[in-house]
From TrEMBL:
It is an enzyme of class 3 (hydrolase). It comes from the Bacteria. This is non-reducing end alpha-L-arabinofuranosidase. It holds the Pfam family Alpha-L-AF_C. The keyword Zinc does not apply. Residues 458-645 form the Alpha-L-arabinofuranosidase C-terminal domain. Residues 1-20 form the signal peptide. The keyword Glycoprotein applies. Keywords: Glycoprotein, Hydrolase, Signal.
Length: 654
């Protein structure tokens, strides 16, 4: 027994020594940064998909407020019995700019008559919040009064007010405000038409007063706030495939999205009929959230504006229409005029419009995208025409160009070669791939040409199922993204921007999954992927610091991934580490530096042993960062990393 005990003891000691020797050690070259991190490194990709704008961040609660949908009364219901023929008529007046339709009300006798609007999958109404109802109207036979009321799903009235339609031969706005005494995410609006008379009405609208920054008829505060919390370096807008449109007639045209709201021309949203499994025939773009509002939101949250313009090509997955090269001048002029709108003096045509809209100061546009996920020689021809004019007139504006729909293959290789020949400033690469691709691609940019174009990881998302959905924003997907992003950060001298896509998804109105942030009519929450990118964007640093294991970058050896940066403003070394193992990993980091660690540090960890776990409206913080204080001293940092975890450690140095 004694001999057996001794043997067991020896084996235990040997095993312990072996485990100690197997602890991975990483060298951190703090005094030898390999490059600079772009100030706009981590940003936001915005597209009006999944009710992202109308029915989402644009706080309008009335659907089809101007009767411009293809079915004029879509979203509306007539209230009352035995309504005489000709009482409610849709009039189409081609003399009205951008908004031809209006509703004629001919009520010659006093009977029960009303309209009900269902909102965007209902209306989100909050208790104790003031709401503003407004409309455009004109009447030569006064006598009508509108009784406006908000109801919950049980038809309980939550708030109401009256608005008299006084005599006016020209269009004017009428407005009333009232406070809600209850809360519902499935509310509706009733407009009872009382009295007798004749009136023409349009732009029937309802907004909460607690919009972002209190702007009348503005943006939904909680949805903008969750973006501001990311401290994004840029906002790419307005998409996405809506830039192209299913055909050129329905492409996104920025000039139709600025100026007075009532003059902006509505078009069908290309996601309306895109997916048979999620048809949304009531999905249109009102452009209440237009280019001016995009620029303003960018400024509000400290992000660089990055508009993307149509290059003369419709979506190649749909019609694939192209405008002839000899008719491309209009498209190029749109780009020149947009630069003037953003940066022009107030005495210029488009600079004056910006000033008239309330922003005489310039928006300081620095970059512009030409085309979205376009490909082939037809794209290169049109891009070259844009480049020649833009660089001759605005060499200060960086041009961002598409590398197609994926990160590899014949289409990608062709575009990558041609874009480099054109000396395009920034190449926009997209990847929707499974977690295994993201884990295996952490070294993707290690060997990219440091003297060639910069890279924009313009649309990335780890998809646990293909084709599209329903994809859950699981921890499995987010952790694979965290690993991949170590490679983007390590190569921040080449990859200067990155953004997850799509941004928003409405739980009752989505077409595409997964999405970074999910909402319903009252709530908003960030997915595990949101928390991962937020940790990168709020800890981006200024300098790339090499971190090596056995003189190699840490790109998946033993399922470990790492990157480090230094922040000149806070004097912190920021370590990001992914443990993609089912067990705890103990590691040591050897600092190659004359600087000293300054004691207390902050450790932030996201982890879950359940790789299928995800956040939801019911449990919005199931997966979230956990922060703790830690202390280090000397030149070696020893730390333990939980299974399936992403960890950020902020270490003060002096």
């Amino acid at each position: 027994m004694k001999k057996l005990f001794s043997l067991c003891t020896i084996l235990t000691i040997c095993c312990s020594i072996s485990m100690a020797q197997s602890i991975p050690t990483f060298k951190v070259g703090l005094d030898n940064p390999s490059g600079k991190i772009s100030s706009s490194m981590w940003g936001i990709f915005f597209e009006d998909i999944n009710l992202g704008a109308d029915g989402g961040v644009y706080a309008e609660l009335v659907k089809n407020r101007s009767f411009e949908f293809s079915t004029p009364f879509m979203g509306w219901k007539t209230l009352g019995k035995n309504v005489p023929e000709g009482t409610l008529i849709i009039q189409n007046d081609s003399k009205r700019k951008g908004n031809a339709r209006s509703l004629l009300i001919n009520k010659l006798t006093d009977f029960s008559l009303g309209l009900q609007n269902e909102g965007f999958r209902g209306m989100g109404i909050k208790n104790g919040i003031a709401y503003e109802f407004s409309l455009l109207f004109r009447t030569t036979k006064p006598g009508l009064t509108l009784h406006v009321e908000l109801l919950d799903e049980t038809d309980k009235v939550l708030g109401s007010s009256n608005l008299s339609l006084t005599q006016t031969a020209t269009w004017k706005y009428g407005t009333v405000k009232f406070e809600s005494v209850g809360e519902t995410k499935n509310g509706k609006l009733n407009i009872w038409i009382q009295g007798t008379g004749h009136a023409e009405v349009d732009m029937l609208s309802l907004f909460p007063e607690d919009t972002w920054m209190g702007r009348p008829k503005g943006l939904r505060k909680d949805m903008v706030q969750i973006l501001a919390d990311m401290k994004p370096g840029f906002i790419r807008f307005p998409g996405g495939c809506i830039v192209e449109g299913r055909d050129l007639a329905n492409r996104f045209q920025w000039k139709k999205t600025v100026g007075p709201i009532e003059e902006r021309e509505l078009i069908i949203n290309r996601w309306n009929t895109e997916f048979n499994h999620r048809l949304t025939p009531d999905y249109f773009q009102t452009f209440g959230l237009g280019f001016y509002e995009y620029f303003l939101m960018s400024e509000d949250i400290g992000a660089e504006p990055l508009p993307i313009l149509n290059c003369g090509m419709a979506c190649q997955f749909n019609t694939g229409e192209v405008v002839p090269l000899d008719q491309l001048d209009t498209y190029i002029q749109d780009a020149l005029d947009l630069i003037e709108f953003a940066n022009g003096e107030v005495h210029t045509r488009w600079g004056k419009l910006r000033a008239d809209m309330g922003h005489p100061a310039k928006f300081n546009l620095k970059m512009l995208g030409v085309g979205n996920e376009n490909w082939g020689p037809q794209y290169i021809e049109r891009l070259a025409a844009f480049k020649d004019v833009l660089k001759s007139k605005h060499p200060e504006i960086a041009i961002i160009a598409s590398s197609g729909t994926g990160p590899d293959g014949e289409r990608f290789d062709y575009l990558d070669e041609k874009l480099r020949e054109l000396k395009i400033d920034v190449i926009d690469e997209h990847y929707y791939r499974p977690p295994s691709w993201f884990l295996s691609s952490a070294a993707r940019y290690d060997d990219y040409d440091r003297n060639g174009p910069k890279i924009f990881a313009g649309e990335y998302a780890s998809h646990t199922t293909r084709p599209n959905g329903p994809n859950k924003n699981s921890w499995d997907a987010a952790l694979s993204e965290a690993a991949f992003l170590t490679g983007l950060e390590r190569n921040g001298d080449v990859v200067t921007m990155a953004s997850y896509a799509p941004l928003f998804g409405h739980v009752d109105g989505w077409q595409w999954t997964p999405d970074l942030i999910w909402v319903d009519n009252l709530n908003v929450y960030g997915t595990p992927s949101y928390h991962v990118q937020k940790l990168y964007s709020t800890n981006k640093g200024t300098d790339i610091i090499p971190v090596k294991r056995n003189d190699s970058n840490v790109v998946g050896q033993d399922s470990l991934y790492a990157s480090t940066v230094y922040d000149e403003a806070s004097n912190e070394l920021i370590l990001k580490f992914v443990n993609h193992n089912s067990t705890v990993v103990n590691a040591a980091f050897q600092l190659d530096s004359k600087k000293k660690i300054n004691g207390k540090a902050v450790k932030i960890t996201i982890n879950s042993n359940d790789m299928t776990a995800y956040n939801s409206i019911a449990d919005p913080l199931k997966i979230k960062p956990q922060e703790s204080a830690v202390n280090y001293s000397g030149k070696v940092i020893k730390e333990s990393f939980l299974p399936y975890s992403f960890t950020v450690i902020k270490i003060p140095v002096k």
